[in-house]
Each structure stands twice: as C-alpha cells, then as structure tokens.
Amino acid sequence: MTLELKHVTKRFGEHTAVNDITLTIPKGEMFGMLGANGAGKTTTFRMILGLIDQTEGTITWKSNKIGYESSHLVGYLPEERGLYPKMTVADQLVYLGRLRGMKKAKVLEVLKQWLERFNITEYLHKKIDELSKGNQQKIQFIASVIHQPELLILDEPFSGLDPVNVEQLKKAVLDLKNEGTTIVFSSHRMEHVEELCEHLCILQKGEPIVNGQLKEVKRSYGKKKLMIEAEFDVSYLEAVEGVTSFTPYSNGAKLVITKEAVADQVFKALAGRGSVRKFVLEEPSLNDIFIEKVGASYE
Fold this sequence. Notes:
32% of the residues lie in helices and 30% in strands. By secondary structure, the protein is of the alpha/beta class. It has two domains: 2-213, Rossmann fold; 223-283, Alpha-Beta Plaits (2-Layer Sandwich), CATH 3.30.70. α2 (89-99) packs across α3.
C-alpha cells in the first residue's frame, strides 16, 4: 500500500513545472516535500490528487489511480485556505463531510472530538470569519482529516501559526501517522521536516535534486559542523587540512569540516594548548543541505 510516482512530468505550454519525478512513499510514513517558492510542490500535490493531469508518467495509490471514486481515501489541506467565511464551523464541516460520504451525525461526533482536542469547543456554531487565523487553520485541518483518510496531503500546514499551535497541530499529525495514515507534507521550516519525516524530496525548478531517506541524505552530504569553546585563541585551526569554513565567536569557533576524520586532527591540534570547554561534532542540518543545494536565492 504505497503512493508511487513514476517519471511524472507536468508542462503548461512551454513551461515545465515538474520534470521527471519518481517517488515511492510507503504506507504509514511521513514524507517531506521541500523547495523554494515555485519549485513545483503544489503542482505535484494537485497531480497526486487528480485535480490536474500529469503530462507524462504515472501516479498510483495502492496500485490504482486516485480519482473521484477514491477521494474518500484522501485528505488535502491546501496552502491557499478555502473555507466559506459566512458559514458556521458545524455547517461547513457537515457539508464537507457529506461530500466525503459521511452522515451528518458522524461528522458532528468526530468534529466535536477534534474541537475538544484543540480546546476550541466554543467555536462549533461560530462563523468562520469570526475566528482568528490560527483557529481557522485548525478548522481547515479538521476538514482535511474528518473522514479519516488513508492518505493525507498537507501543503504548508503550520504557516501562520504561533509556536503553541504549531506544537498542537504537530502532535495531531504525528498521532495520525502512528495510527497508520500516510502523510505527505511541504514546509518552508526545515526543522519541522527534520523532526517529523523519515524520507524527503527537495525540488528545484520542478526537478528532484535530493531524494531519499533523511539519514542517508545527511550521511552523503559529508560535511559536518564542529563547535569548539576554549580558553585560548583557536584561530590557528583554520589552517588544519579538511577545515573548509572557520567562524569565530566569543570563546571559540564554529568549523565546517569535510569528513568526520578531520575532527580527530582538530582535536590533536588542540592538545596541550589549555582548557577546552566544548568540543561537539554535529550532523549537518537539513537547513545547511537545503541552502547549499538550492542556493542563496531561496525565499
């Protein structure tokens, strides 16, 4: 039971929005789709959902094409929010739930459970435009999951939320994953992807430039960061072979090294000079990898 994209391309006239993407997303996994604005993430999501047709390639969920007859298996939180502002929360969700084949009583039962979870039970009969942006976002999220989809696509789910609401929504997403939902989501916040996803794809101008397991992506990147704090000047470490970047700060420096073995050489170079309070070898962050691969033009 997987989501598979094989050599998927989408062209709009002369413009190629997505070029030859091949992905396999196993059931029950959370998959991160990254890219600068205009990289092709939303276009890819719309093709997966069957909202637009791909120009080339195939997209299948459990070996079948996603279409109207399987729409009840899929949930979608679009980046552009789409709730009706003058409808009440209850009426809006009942309407959307019934489009997914649910009975009104069931929609209201599940809706009340979600409102309790998010501590917003008093909004059941409020109009959407009476809610703050953060609470509108929660209602939009509930709308995407109320029918308990097997596949959930979240396009920038945490945008516009304060840190408390981000954590609340993140917990809800993780619980859905642990219950077996397959989740694909995009985010501009690298730390969210790093925290939540096992696999990821970075798109640039419609092409996958990084695609694989997060651990392997980090390992293959090679470079590592070395944080040093010492009671003496460490500027001489810049000359150690394999140190590609040296950034001094108060009482120490941040080094970027080409491989783990260089850390041993740096450690030896520190010996006998005085007290070393901190010597920490860190993995590259996803942010480091993204900036190098996509470039400083990232917005």
